[in-house]
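Researcher: Good morning. I'm working through a list of sequences from a screen, and I'd like to move beyond sequence-only analysis. For each chain I'm collecting a predicted structure so we can compare shapes side by side. This is the next one on the list. No need for commentary yet; just the structure.
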Amino acid sequence: MSKILVTGGAGFIGSNLIDLLLESGSKAEDIYIVDNLATETGKKENINSNILEENCFFKDIRDIFSQKSEIPEKLKDVRTVFHLAALARIQPSFKRPIETYDVNSLGTFLVCEYARKIGAKLIYSGSSSFYAGPHLNPYAFSKWSGEEVCKLYSKVYDLKTGVARFFNVYGPRQPIEGVYATVVGIFQRQWLNHEPLTVTGDGEQRRDFTHVNDICRGLLAISKGEHNGDIFNLGREENYSINELANFFADSEKTYIDARPGEARESLADISFTREKTGWTPSVNLGDYVNSWTDDHLKNRRNK
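Model: Good morning. Structure tokens for this chain:
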């Protein structure tokens, strides 16, 4: 592949994507990162050690791509943009609705305008939260608005964009504490510490959990085509209740806490369009992942 920019490249998904790009033949000197390291998910230590320090721009997308700023010379030859930078997760968005919209929607405007100016294609990280209703919470609305920006730029400016809607991503480098932690990450931390697993509501809400390696393979598959705001679901086409997820963690107890506002009762991906257009299919099973992870960490748990 030619030169590539990953916004949010120090984050959970972005750093795993960079690992895959390198494994797939991209050269380290051709990969660039923009990440402001503003949340628990973005860490310098996540970045593959082969990535050049001078190719990392630790800045906010709203600053580096501002209309008042000159595009850095190194970023003018990029031909593929993976736009993953965002304020993620539903619950924090209730406390920061304006900033969530500013980063996820208006920030996407700036990244699309940058991609248009340099003639790059853009792959945008959408969210499966859309299916519960884009007006259910500020996060879902902001990510859906970002999708609409991509469609606008494809229609008006012929910018080649593809929208990848992620379904409940988990796996290596997922946040395990703080407001951005994933439920799988939270359960891992609690299991290691011999703590009860905290289940929200009745635990019967169902989620389509998708391993980060599958997500990154999906992003790479989407990037190989040229799209005009097309939507690509990246999920397993299989869902589990939170109770079922908790039961995968052997020798653990559950404790139930109040349900959280703004969250869907069920998510389940339809990946038929993605499969048809890209040939992508997921490969990692949630139960297999948890069983393998707990086996690998059993010694650490026993020593606590």
